[in-house]
Here is the input.
Amino acid sequence: MTGTRLIYRSQPFGFDAAMLAGILSTARRNNPRWGITGALICRHDVYLQLIEGPSDSIEALYSRILKDDRHLDVRLLLQEEMNQRLFPTWAMLDDEAPSLFWSAEDVAKGALEAASPDTLLAPFLLLSKAHPD
Ligand SMILES: Cc1cc2nc3c(=O)[nH]c(=O)nc-3n(C[C@H](O)[C@H](O)[C@H](O)COP(=O)(O)O)c2cc1C
Here is the structure.
């Protein structure tokens, strides 16, 4: 399958367990319909999400995500063609940030924006290995 892989980061607005549960339940309801899979790494200071699937589905989802008022300062970090998914069986895997090796201070200073594509993908590779199919 060819498609798009996209990673963005944002700043949670009003982060709490109920909000996160709401986001994940919407993602898990919608994503299978559009052939989208991925992972959402979440911490009080940052969301880092990888979404992968058919290019038009990814573009449509990202434009909805951009308008969502549950987070701020959404920034695209990586968008590339992919022919192999990292999370083939996950409508949306969630990870409460143990895989995120940047500190809150690093994130605030722009570490994610400065990271190379390989460095950005690294926490997602760890996650996908920790949750094999
Ligand atoms: C951090 C974050 C991640 C999200 N991830 C997804 C997702 O993977 N899939 C999805 O459909 N909506 C996701 N959303 C929600 C969308 O912004 C939007 O609210 C939703 O797609 C609208 O779907 P609905 O019309 O079925 O309510 C996310 C929102 C946030 C704040």
Notes: Residues 23, 26-27, 30-31, 40, 47, 49, 51, 61, 64-65, 68, 70-71, 92 surround flavin mononucleotide (CB under 6 Å). DSSP finds five helices and five strands in the chain.
